[in-house]
């Protein structure tokens, strides 16, 4: 047998071996897929960084996308380890009958305490589990406080409903309560911006 014939037979056997190897790899490729279980659940938020003022409420939409090949239900949980100045709740904690490659949403209601400070910024973790499966996914919602400036003067303890009797030629010290109702350190300047209409003031005072 010539060397050329032997070489051709060796090449044919090698080609056959490679073809068989590729067929085996193709048959088992679903079993060695690099896609993880969490890849079956995809999450997104309408606003991933929410900025609101103290004493207000806002909504954020959580969307769950079904990357699986079957109809699935999902449960949504909130990790409770976030700053207590916030209250975070779900309108629906169960999302049902999401078709493959389709999405469904639920609403997250976020309320901030009226006395919250800027330092009360926090991160809320949302966990979504696919029912009857180990597939799951998490996403984080960042919550921040809008800076708020507000000063208040309380004269309820001054004189009689704010009326002070001052004798001619005398001086009196008046103590008033000045409060910072904002959530920022503030410098409050007190000043007289106009002179009152005393005649009208007396008429209003006596008629009350």
UniProtKB/TrEMBL annotation:
What is this protein identified as?
Alpha-galactosidase NEW3 domain-containing protein
The source organism is marine metagenome
């Amino acid at each position: 047998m010539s060397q050329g014939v032997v070489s051709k037979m060796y090449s044919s056997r090698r080609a056959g071996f490679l073809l068989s190897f590729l067929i085996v790899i193709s048959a088992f490729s679903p079993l060695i897929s690099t896609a993880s279980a969490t890849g079956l659940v995809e999450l997104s938020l309408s606003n991933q960084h929410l900025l609101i003022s103290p004493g207000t409420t806002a909504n954020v939409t959580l969307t769950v996308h079904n990357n699986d090949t079957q109809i699935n239900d999902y449960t949504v949980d909130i990790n409770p380890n976030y700053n207590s100045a916030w209250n975070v709740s779900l309108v629906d904690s169960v999302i049902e009958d999401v078709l493959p490659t389709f999405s469904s949403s639920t609403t997250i209601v976020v309320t901030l305490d009226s006395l919250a400070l800027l330092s009360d910024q926090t991160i809320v973790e949302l966990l979504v589990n696919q029912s009857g499966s180990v597939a799951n996914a998490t996403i984080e919602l960042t919550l921040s406080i809008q800076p708020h400036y507000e000063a208040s003067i309380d004269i309820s303890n001054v004189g009689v409903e704010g009326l002070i009797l001052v004798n001619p030629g005398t001086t009196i010290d008046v103590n008033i309560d000045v409060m910072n109702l904002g959530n920022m350190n503030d410098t409050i300047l007190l000043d007289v911006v106009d002179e009152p209409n005393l005649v009208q003031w007396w008429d209003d005072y006596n008629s009350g």
